[in-house]
Amino acid sequence: MEEMYIDAENMVAGRLASKMAKELLKGKKVFIVNAEKAVISGEPDYIIKDYREKRERGDPYHGPFYPREPDRLIKRMVRGMLPIKAAKGRDALKRLRVFISVPDDMSGKKFEKIKNTENNLKCKSMKIGDLAQKLGAKKTW
Fold it and tell me: Please, what are the domains in the chain?
């Protein structure tokens, strides 16, 4: 099984998620590092408001549950772009691993940058790490 090692630093999170969903459906195993340094485009106040609504929606015991940590936010974005109700989508999601910063066992790997996902935005944006802190995640990165 082919493996991809991706550095999410200064990449637009939605574009990265769509590209990774496509690669996962092809059968590749994907490792994403530096999840907290990925970027979401838009007005920061609106982004925080939107994610806070997603987080507070539903029942605290029965869901729907929405993450607040940067690595889990990226994984949730990719999950939204996979056919999760079909077996191929569930299998694809199992092949995805997302990490905050670079783990020690991956320090020697060569990380790729995906074309067309780099942050060339001319609008306002914010890093996922900052969003996670605003949602109440404990900073461990």
Answer: 3-135 (3.90.1180.10)
Average pLDDT score over the chain: 95
d(CA 88, CA 83): 7
Quote the tokens at residue 101: 């910063």
Q: Are 140 and 34 in contact (CB under 8 A)?
A: no
Name beta bridge partners: 83. none
pTM for the model: 0.93
pLDDT mean values, one per 10 residues, the chain (141 residues):
95 97 98 97 97 94 95 98 98 98 93 90 95 94 82
